[in-house]
Amino acid sequence: MGVRQFDISLRVNGEDVSARVEARKTLVDFLRDDLALTGTHVGCEHGVCGACTLLVDGEVVRGCLVLAVQCDGTRVDTIEGLSDSGAIADLQHAFAARNALQCGYCTPGMLIGAQELLARGGVPSRDAIREHMSGNYCRCTGYQAIVDAVEAVAVARAGGKA
Amino acid sequence: MKIADDQPSGLSALDRPNSYIGRSVPRPNLARLTQGRGLYVSDVTLPRMLHVAFVRSPHAHARIKAIETAEAKKAPGVVAVVTGAELAEVITPWVGVLTHLKGIKSAPQYAIAVERACWQGEAVAAVVARTRAEAEDACALVAVDYEPLAAVTDAEAALDASTPVIHPSLGDNLTFERALTAGDPDGGFAQADAVVETTFLFGRHTGVTNEPRAIVADWNPAEERLTVYHGTQAPHMTQDVFAKHLNLEAHQVRVLTKDVGGSFGIKVHIYADEMATVALSKLLRRPVKFVADRLESFVTDIHARDHRVHAKIGVKNDGTITAFEIDDLTGIGPYSVYPRTSGIEANQVVNLVGGPYACANYRARARVVFQNKNVMCQYRAVGHPIATAVTEGLVDLAAAKIGMDPAALRRKNLIADDAYPMTGASGIKFEKLSHHASLDKILALMDYDNLLAEQARLRTRGIYRGIGLASFIEVTNPSAAFYGVGGARISSQDGVTLRLDSTGAVFVHSGVTEQGQGAESVLAQCVATSFGVPIERVRVITGDTDNTPYGGGTWASRAAGIGGEAAWQAGKALRANVLAAAGAMLQADAKTLDIRAGIVVDAQTGRERLPLEEVARVVYFRPDTLPPDFQAEFVVTRHYVPRAWPFAFTNGVQASYLDVDIKTGEVKLLKHWCVEDCGTVINPQLVDEQIRGGIVQGIGGALYEHCLYDEAGQLLNGNLMDYLVPMAGEMPDIDIGHVVTPTADSELGAKGAGEAGTAGAPACVMNAINDALRPLGAATLTEMPFTPERVLRALGKV
């Protein structure tokens, strides 16, 4: 069984990476298996749970619905890079302070999803936060703590005014 | 206060200076998890590691006539293709029965099916390859010749003489039956002014842990040791089981459990494919990894809650409940799950129905039957959501029948708060509960009277809102009565070992495990308080059978109440030992000293005498300066098991406020409340979040989640597109209140809180929906999940 392979070059968390990948390999499998970036998680592999949420050229994508070969020439940012750069430190702190995670498996994807919403500016309503976060499945928290944490960061980023 | 006074200041033990008990201390492991630096079993990679994928039966029931593996063995990357018969040479089969469930029976289950597959999804062959993708490729090349057999899928028909017997050696398809009569149920119904009877149906659903089941097994033949990285709730239990069935001694097996991506009871059982994985590692003498993908999770993770309950209540016109009666039937798949059995959920239903109420007349029957569907077993709140929905559904129907306010009817019948200790109708023993205080509190919290007024006002505008209440009890802190007495090698006791390091920091080794609920925080809070150090100086180690005291792990809401008490006692013991050393150094009576915030002080005045670092330095590096007859002991271990009560029952009440769209049948949840009593609250934030998460899990079963099977035993919606789980957009905000009734069985007084939310949520959502639709003359909805279609049917619109 011949499996087609392709050479790709991309920038992952600010580092240039070149690799040969099977055509069928998803981005999340490439990141986890080939680059050992295990912070991006695999939950359903069919685009529903959001555990593999990450950024490609600054856009939020599901790492299980994108092939690694499609990411040739792109910039990929994962939870590891966003953590090291400090870009979402306030969100991470708020999630911890509010216990907005229990097992933590959904959390990297949840944080990246929340950052996308907050990057639009302003203080979204709780309903808007809930709606936006509805692409990310969490079995542990019941979501309220996540909404609280995202809301708190939105207020803080807006200068403390709700 | 009942806490033993170990503190000369007059403060209680829990009120020690710098106490962390009752404080919302953030969990120390969260920074790691928010940065993607966790270590889940899915993340584990070992040198020479192989991956296994399983060929799974597409039939619910089929004879395996032949398996052709030659093509698969030639596929790229493939190291081995193994059938059930071949693997049975390495690992022995098991039977999921326990002696305290009298008469329960099951058949031997193999790691990989031998001769016959009994449910769609049962593994019939394993392919081991360098990568998971290569293993899956080769699975497609394994040719299995099946002879389809008649599938038993309808639990109602499983015991009919015309239905095939799944395991002929057992004689019939009955797994377990229990009957109970308490008081005088016939007399009770005869006294009643009204008798209401209905049938409740609960949809089979499953846990959908975000991280699927995962295991990496590493047999090292040079050491004759098996190391298993396992996403489990009970490492010592799986150690014991792996050893037994691989013909090893338990000490030859080490189970490591680091981060686990959600458990909820799904990961407390023995799974055939995980047993196959450890056996394959032993066979191939290399590490083997198995991570279930989402599709195989749906057909192999235990399912739960598939119950049909005929139920009856008698009530007098003054609201007095005179009798309860239930007949429960549940189909559990082709095998009782090992080693906890699949009889426990039905047994719990019998134990718990009517539990909050003073009515002594009760008749119950529960039957558990085999069928050719995926196995069912204990999932978060085992039996409670069913018992609570049946009880509270009946109570609301009785209230409607006699025209009484549902809150008033509850108040009339709930066991009085001063009636304890007492024994419930089913024989369950209550130390002390607070049903009335909890009901009063929730009615105030939700502003019940105003909600009733708002509901009435909106009905005149064609908006149909419902208010639902559900009182409940919850089994927590189980003693050996749960499993040990039935022969299961599952520990109900738990231990904590503390070790003071050379700088005065404390290592805590505990047999309970962290599944995200915050057990490690609770352990740290208990130790920091009872020993007397800042919590930053406490480091907790769990999930390693080589390096923790023997323990049960995390299930049945036991980690805080049992593990926490062991930690509390160990902290006191280490304090005594450290003060003995400090006393020797200071030439002072140790009894006059205390440890506060990491400093040895005079107990009376609080005057600082020695930092812990200095005590540790002298003991470890200059013991020559201590009296010759003094030996410091800076490692201590304490164990705890509940003794006075077989279970620490907790109680609570939930309420739901929702809107039913009578055009579309959709239910919109507006608000949810819970008041519960788990005794001493060690960490309020963690307790509240356990309850919120549990409530949403219960709401999932009430409104969305259902494993839909066809008549041939095929799961129709085994993926996350078609199986609906609660997402943020549909969930309400949840307000939580507490009543605190500590258990006197421990010094801490903490009972469990992990399952209270799931226990009560389906019942009160059901009651709220029926409350919303009652003025429209709708049929009572008693079949979960309450889909828009079922709501419209109740309204007669489809």
List its traits.
heterodimer; A: 162 residues; alpha+beta; Ubiquitin-like (UB roll); 2 domains; 5-stranded mixed beta sheet; B: 798 residues; Aldehyde Oxidoreductase, domain 3; Aldehyde Oxidoreductase, domain 4; 3 domains; 27% helix; globular; disordered N terminus
Characterize the largest beta sheet of chain A: strand count, sense, and whether it forms a barrel. Answer: 5 strands, mixed
CATH class category label of the largest domain in chain A:
Alpha Beta
Q: Could you give me the name of the CATH homologous superfamily of the largest domain in chain A? A: Beta-grasp domain
Q: Indicate the low-confidence ranges of chain A by residue numbers.
A: none
Helical residues, percent of chain B? 25-40%
In what order do the strands lie side by side in the largest sheet of chain A? 2-1-5-3-4
- Second rung of CATH, namely the architecture of the largest domain in chain B: 2-Layer Sandwich
Query: Major sheet of chain B, described briefly?
Result: 7 strands, mixed
Radius of gyration of chain B: 28 Å
Which range does the strand content of chain B fall in? 15-25%
Task: List how many beta strands of chain A DSSP finds.
Answer: 5
Q: What's the shape of chain B?
A: globular
- Our Rg estimate of chain A from Cα atoms comes to 16 Å
Secondary structure tally: strands of chain B: 30
By helix and strand content of chain B, what is the structural category? alpha+beta
Query: Mean pLDDT of chain A, nearest integer?
Result: 96
What structural class do you assign from the helix and strand content of chain A? alpha+beta
The CATH superfamily of the largest domain in chain B is: Aldehyde oxidase/xanthine dehydrogenase, molybdopterin binding domain
